[in-house]
């Protein structure tokens, strides 16, 4: 009996360690609150962006609630796994995120993860640039960005597929 309990505790500790190893860089990049929100927030919106009226400003020209979209659970998981991104040193698992800012017009879409529609403080907004060479992701209000790695193509396909299921589908044209 004691052996089974020890085996169970060892397996649990190994699972926790393994999970931490897969997500530690994303947790550092997003912060624990934002990472939790990306993984579990009940309200998720997709915004198609365009240059706004002020310098360095973006505006959403299309806003879609994607909280119930097919594949969102997999996307959430992918957004917090280190191996899905290319970090500053070119490796998917090492190095700090680049600090250089992209111009506001570079960002194509945003994903907004919210605790509720009315609570602005309970939001995490990720902006995404689908540039073919150096696609990137950043968190609004936080420094740094990470390059899209293997998540880039799947993320773009998911967005296009989700938008094509709308009554009047928007063609983002990344």
- The separation of the N and C termini measures 58 Å
Helix and strand element order: HHEEHEEEEEH
Number of strands: 7
Oligomer: single chain
Q: Could you describe the largest sheet, including whether it forms a barrel?
A: 7 strands, antiparallel
Average pLDDT rating: 81
Q: Order of strands across the biggest sheet?
A: 2-1-4-5-6-7-3
Note the overall shape. Answer: globular
By DSSP (H or I, 4+ residues per run), the number of helices equals: 4
Structurally, how many domains make up the residues? 1
Q: In what range is the share of β-strand residues?
A: 15-25%
Folded structure, characterized:
α1 packs across α2. With 174 residues, the protein is an alpha+beta fold. It has one domain. The longest helix is centred in the first third of the chain and has 29 residues. The protein is globular. The chain has a seven-stranded antiparallel β-sheet. Helix content is 34%, strand content 22%. The chain is built from four helices and seven strands; from the N terminus they run ααββαβββββα.
């Amino acid at each position: 009996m004691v052996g089974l309990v020890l085996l169970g505790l060892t397996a649990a500790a190994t699972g926790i360690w393994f999970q931490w190893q897969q997500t530690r860089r994303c947790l550092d990049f997003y912060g624990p609150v934002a990472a939790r929100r990306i993984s579990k927030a009940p309200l998720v919106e997709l915004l198609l962006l365009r240059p706004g009226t002020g310098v360095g400003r973006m505006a959403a020209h299309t806003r879609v609630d994607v909280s119930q979209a097919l594949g969102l659970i997999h996307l959430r998981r992918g957004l917090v796994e280190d191996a899905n991104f290319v970090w500053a040193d070119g490796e998917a698992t090492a190095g700090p995120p680049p600090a250089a800012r992209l111009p506001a017009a570079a960002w194509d879409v945003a994903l907004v993860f919210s605790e509720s529609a009315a609570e602005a403080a309970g939001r995490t907004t990720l902006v995404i640039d689908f540039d073919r060479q150096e696609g990137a992701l950043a968190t609004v209000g936080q420094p740094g960005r990470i390059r899209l790695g293997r998540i880039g193509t799947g993320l773009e396909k998911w967005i296009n597929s989700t938008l094509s299921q709308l009554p009047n589908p928007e063609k983002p044209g990344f």
